[in-house]
Structure prediction request, 227 residues.
Amino acid sequence: MVPSARGVRLGAAVAILAFVANGLLGLDLLAVLLSLSLISLAINRPRRSER
Amino acid sequence: MMDDTLVQLALVLVRLGALTFGTVGTVLGEMERELVGHGWLTHAQFVEAYSLSQLAPGPAGTLIVVPLGYQIAGLAGALVAAVAFYSPTALFAFGAMSLWGRVRENRWPRAIRQAVTPVAIGLLAGAVYTLGQSTIRGPSGLLLVTVATLVLLRTRVPAPVVVLGCAAVGMVFFRP
Prediction:
C-alpha cells in the first residue's frame, strides 16, 4: 500500500508532475522518481523546530 | 534466442522491482512500455495479464509478473520474472529492515517516506492513464471503467469480484 500523502507540503503538485512526466510524457521512471523525490524532500525537509 | 530474451526480461524486471515503491502499480506504466516496447507482448496481452493478477490471492496485482513472464517465455519466463522482480525488494528488506525499524520514526527517514509518497501517487495515476489509453475504447468502455472505479472506491466489494463482474458485463454487451 502507498501511505497517505495528507500533510505533505506541495504533495498535489508533486503528484501531478509525476503523472505528467511518467504517464503523459513517458519519461524514464528512475529519472522521474529520483528528481521529484529530491524536490519533494527539499520542500518537506525537517525543520529545526520539528521533533 | 530464448536465453537472450530471458536475460533481457530479467534485466528489465530487476530494474522495475528495485524502483517499486508501495505497490506494483507505481511501475505498471513503465512495465507496460518496456514489455510492449520490446515486442514481447501486445497492449491487450499486458492488460489481460494484469486483470488475471487481480484475481489471484495475495496483495492485489503483485503477481502480475508471473503471467507476464509466462506469456513471454513460458514456464522459464514465469520463473525468471518472479525471481528478477522480487529479488531486489527481498534483498533490500533483508538487509535494511532491521536498521529501518530503528530509525523509521526519526526526522529524516520520516521526511523521506513522506516526500516519496506523492511521487508514488502520481506514478500510479500515470499507470492508470497508460493502461487506459490502450484499453478504453469508446463511451461504453469509459462507462464500465467509471462504474468499476466507483464501486471500488465507495463500497467494500473485493477487486476480484469487480473484475469478474466487469468481465461478465463485457461478455454480454461488448461482444465483437
Q: What stands out?
A: Chain B touches chain A at residues 15-16, 19, 21-23, 25-27, 29-30, 33, 107-108, 110-130 (CB under 8 Å). The CA atoms of residues 135 and 141 of chain B lie 8 Å apart. The two ends of chain B are 36 Å apart (CA to CA).
